[in-house]
Amino acid sequence: MSVPHTLLGLLEREPSHGYELKRDYDAFFGRGRQLPFGQVYATLGRLARDGKVVAGEAEPGAGPDRKRYVITETGVTEVETWLTEPAEPEPHLQTVLFSKVVLALMLDRPASSYLDEQRAVHLRRMRELTDLKRGGDLVDVFLADYGLFHLDADLRWMDMTAARLDALAAAVRR
Amino acid sequence: MATGGAGCLIEAVNLVKSFGSTPALRGASVAVNRGEVLAVMGPSGSGKSTLLHCLAGILRPDTGEVWFGDRRVDTMGEAERSALRRDCFGFVFQFGQLVPELTAQENVALPLLLGGVRRAEALSRARQWFGRLGLEGLERQRSGEMSGGQAQRVALARGLIAEPEVLFADEPTGSLDSLASEQVMNLLTSAARDQGTSVILVTHEAPVAAYADRDVVVRDGKVASLAAERAAT
Which of A93, A101, B68, B206 is 20 to 30 A distant from B33 in Cα terms? Predict the structure, then answer.
């Protein structure tokens, strides 16, 4: 799970205060694992240092969290690059894929294309593992099968998600 | 006209096909190279089987072109397409579709018999496939007396015995468990590669598609193009 990219994506949707980012992160991406406030502000600080977000002036009011953060062009490019770059296929990467799909839908980006690109990368890895099975010994076969079944599970999830994108889009868009 | 490169053996160009008012293909294009194993994937109802049937000359597209080498398939008459299927193509379907009245050996020999090969020679050539596919002793069995995996290997031998230029396989492992499926795919791809036969493999199962050299996805009657492929052209 890439917290910086996810926060950037949320900021591309709309300028937000830190507490709003935490609230939306927890609601959409933090199921069972909420993002600590400290990590939100540390991440925003690094993003500001790298020119990907800018912080507005502190707004009057009670409490420490009165700055609104705005994404920069550099930040938008970063989100775009991250979304279009297929993740390295490995077991248990579903949370990254899930975040990409949800953010893409929130931002009205082509989630279906991202899923197609990811499918292609997964299938490429499955071909490599199938070749390993063909030329390898029994241990290689069992090892390759482990990877193949996990990748197949990811692909089934991608196919189901692709078939339900419209419903998911309606659920995550405001 | 055909747009595939020098190695292209069979190609669909912008195929459109409807069944009544229901569109199945909406401008599908794909090219398969000589000796290549291509997996055609896609959800149910996406048009992948219709694409395969158009490429094989079983169906005629409403518009678009199908080329096999320098021969245009979609404008051929039924007799010419039938001869093309018999002489140049092989087929394997999901449920084997063996002729129940014939023995396994006669089923395998069938494409040769239909092509005019003498019965003794056809049966002799068919017998050789039983050892290759691990089916020794089943030559006299009928389809109802074999397991699904055995029947599918017999169907595979029937699809490849005439050394077709293209083997069309529509969900060839769809009715099999993982192990039998793996066995059939290993045999299918190794036999096809030995003979230099191109394979067009329709499947919705990724582990099956992983035996192919390449895969395409059919969605809503079109072949989806990926950014990586677009960048390469």
Answer: B206
Contact residues, chain A, for B226 at CB < 8 Å? 116-117, 120
Mind listing the pLDDT tens digit for each residue in B193-217?
A: 999 999 999 998 999 999 999 999 9
- Please calculate the CA angle A100-B215-A79 and round it to the nearest 5 degrees: 20
ipTM: 0.78
Q: Does the global pTM surpass 0.90?
A: no
Cβ atoms of A43 and A3 closer than 8 Å = yes
Do B226 and A130 count as a contact with CB atoms less than 8 A apart? no
CB B158 within 8 A of CB B102: no
With contact defined as beta carbons under 8 Å apart, do B169 and B199 qualify? yes
CA distance A149 to A128: 14
3-state secondary structure chain A: CCHHHHHHHHHHHCCEEHHHHHHHHHHHCCCCCCCCHHHHHHHHHHHHHCCCEEECCCCCCCCCCCCEEEECHHHHHHHHHHHHCCCCCCCCCHHHHHHHHHHHHHCCCCHHHHHHHHHHHHHHHHHHHHHHHHHCCHHHHHHHHHHHHHHHHHHHHHHHHHHCHHHHHHHHCC
Interface of A with B in 8-27 (CB under 8 A): none
A163–B211 C-beta distance less than 8 A: no
CB A15 within 8 A of CB A68: yes
